[in-house]
Specification:
Helix 1 packs parallel to helix 12, helix 4 packs antiparallel against helix 5 and helix 5 packs antiparallel against helix 6. Helix content is about 30%, strand content about 20%. The longest helix has 16 residues.
């Protein structure tokens, strides 16, 4: 039974109220509790784990909110996360599908061979350099010009343009150049998307990690901060909970009721399909669809994350979407306009005596999972040194 539905209950005093049971909130809660702090975690979703939530469907651990592949060069973070689950040897090697032509990602010698028939790194580099010279772009004015100046027109047209326009909902000519600061080119036959030393998927999915992080910590799901505060205030004074510090991992502008304006995000829509008669739908965990005409950006086949075989498979098509209030925010739009607005909210946050903001939404910053853990650990260290 949820706390706000109870009538006569003893008041609780917490050191920290943590809003959000994603990776950031869960790591902070665990570390604070291990240091003797009393912590309550609440989450508006009906389950813990935030965007790394995995759900078992037909024996397959489905990444409900998109593919999550753990990778890091941070030895401390790797040792930390592997305390809570055994990780397999999964290597992220996505495939790009452009009008039925299949290309290896990241851009490597397999990609260049398929694109131009070149065989040696010298031939590939010469072809890219030739196309860059043909474009004759010295000061890129937009994302399209920036990408062409880095990799040439062929790779841009087939593997970047359509995918990027779907992801951002705008033509590449209307996107700022700084979105693509560099495009890694590998003149080797290496399909590993990440260069990080450590990489893998937890055997048994991600949800178990968060459940272990929150073990013995009280958690309320299906309740927002506003709902919890409203229900708490409705109780008698001697029954009301209290807390010294609040960690908020939701949207910082939502916390302030959008008083300075609304930050922009890109959202996602997921279309998941169970295929009980199919053993292997696409032969790879992730296949990107790079032409603009295909409405989704990629198809995920979840069983390949854990090298599962046998009858049945589950796939998810991922559709980028314009975000509006009430939708799930996935990607902050870190352009100049939103950066300036976030800076104003960050100034408000600095004036808060007992409120902390953390994570991708609280800090309006795209974080890989390892960076989420590192940031949460750093916050704990700073907090408990007070």
């Amino acid at each position: 039974m949820c706390l706000w539905e109870r009538k006569h209950i003893e008041a609780m005093k917490y050191d920290y109220l943590v809003v959000g049971s994603g990776l950031y909130g869960a790591v902070f809660a665990r570390e604070a509790a291990d240091r003797g702090k009393k912590v309550l975690v609440i989450d508006k979703r009906p389950n813990v784990a935030g965007n790394i939530y995995t759900k078992k469907v037909e024996g397959i651990h489905v990444h409900k909110y998109g593919a999550h592949i753990f990778h890091t060069n941070d030895t401390k973070v790797w040792k930390y996360i592997t305390r809570f689950a055994e990780f397999n040897r999964f290597t992220n090697s996505p495939v790009a599908n452009y009008r039925g032509e299949l290309y290896s990602l990241p851009f490597n010698m397999y990609t260049f061979n398929k694109m131009w028939g070149v065989v040696t790194p010298e031939e590939a580099a010469a072809k890219i350099e030739e196309q860059k010279k043909e474009a004759c772009i010295t000061e890129p004015k937009n994302l399209e010009e920036q990408a062409i100046s880095l990799v040439g027109r062929d790779i841009f047209e087939k593997l970047i343009k359509g995918y990027t326009e779907k992801q951002w909902g705008r033509d590449c000519k209307d996107l700022p150049a700084f979105i693509i600061r560099r495009l890694p080119l590998r003149f080797t036959y290496d399909n590993n998307y990440f260069n990080d030393r450590f990489q893998g998927i937890p055997e048994g999915g991600y949800t178990q990690i968060v459940e272990k992080l929150l073990e013995d910590i009280p958690v309320l799901t299906g309740v927002s901060l506003q709902e919890y505060q409203t229900a708490n205030a409705a109780r008698t004074a001697d029954e009301q909970d209290s807390w010294d510090r609040l960690l908020y991992t939701g949207m910082i502008d939502e916390y302030y009721h959008y008083r300075l304006g609304t930050l922009e995000y890109r959202s996602l829509r997921f279309e998941t399909e169970e295929l009980p008669e199919e053993d292997n739908y696409q032969g790879n965990a992730v296949v990107n669809y790079t032409e603009r005409e295909v409405p989704y950006t990629r198809i995920i086949e979840h069983k390949h994350f854990e090298f599962q075989t046998g009858e049945g498979t589950v796939i998810t098509r991922e559709y980028p979407a314009t975000w509006k209030k009430g939708d799930e925010p996935y990607y902050p739009i870190n352009d100049e306009k939103n950066g300036a607005l976030y800076a104003q909210y960050a100034e408000l946050a600095k004036k808060e005596a007992n409120v902390l903001f953390g994570g991708r939404l609280g800090q309006y910053k795209y974080y890989d999972m390892d960076k989420v853990i590192r940031s949460a650990l750093d916050m704990v260290k700073e907090e408990l040194a007070r």
